[in-house]
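dumping this here so i dont lose it again. seq + smiles for zinc ion
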Amino acid sequence: MPLSDDEFMRYSRQILLPEVGELGQSALKKAKVLIVGVGGLGQLAAQYLAAAGVGQLTLVDDDRVERSNLPRQLLFDDKDIGEYKSSRARDKLMQRYPNSEINGIIKRLSLDNASGIIEWADIVLDCSDNLVTRHHVNQTCVSFPTPLVTASVAHFSGFLFAVDLKQAPDAGCYACLFPQDSIVTKSCSTAGVLGPMVGTLASIQTLMVINLLLGVGKVCGKLLRFNGLEFKWREASLSRNPKCPVCAGVINPLLLDAQKEVCHAEY
Amino acid sequence: MQSINRGDEVMENDDLMIELLMNDKALVIPKGMSLAGLVTKQQIEPKSVALVCNGEIVPRAHWQERVCEDADEIEIFSVVAGG
Ligand SMILES: [Zn+2]
């Protein structure tokens, strides 16, 4: 997809990076990205991605803007209180970034509607605020499989990682790490959260997504955790649960295919 | 007599106990304890946390069969889902 003169100027500091270049910028322009949840993480990720020149962005959320969102959801202001987040975010981003096509879907993503929404996307950001939605996003992404970058934050801790069954089958999926019967003891509404904590996680999440869209970097296979009181990042390698009810049925055939390829290569 | 007994007890304990790091703090636990046992011993609800052992995630399904080793570095962290 060729870039216009305006785009060359606008994205020149990105194109300057050897890891991006003209090809990479075109890849971003071609990309279709889905953001599930337009809260603290989602509204920032959406701004970064639209500003960076991602061609198509879809925002899914059925929540309305509340006064208590404003300290960390900087895309919104007092006039937006009571409006749907996904449609306000869409309107504001379209005005600011006319190069990007922005869609807003006023729905809560569930297993019933997830396939139709995720099918369209090259990559998904899970920015939702509850475990049920996170499992629905994961399960649907795994079924395609569509790469997923999931981030979450509450109190002074947050973590994020990518699920990409093609690139990193051994890292498994969200349910390998947190099985579906997991219990959340800390949420933003019960434990509280600070804007910059959310911003830190959203920034790294978006950076991971851009890396994956460009096909650069070492995003997959690791879980990153940040503690905003100790100021420590910790890394752990992800490992799949071979009996995971969500991904085992998808990964095992993928691994078999990979083995067959190796066998063919030997002959 | 008593002090000798106490000495024997300590020696015996050394054989039966191991020391590991749990969220950066040293912890002495009985030899042979599983990761599941360790989590429960800390009075943590197993379904509310994930576990890293020596830099690697251990899926919850494996906590029962995996035995803690001396000098293991274990991190346990809560599930957060906020966005
Ligand atoms: Zn899985």
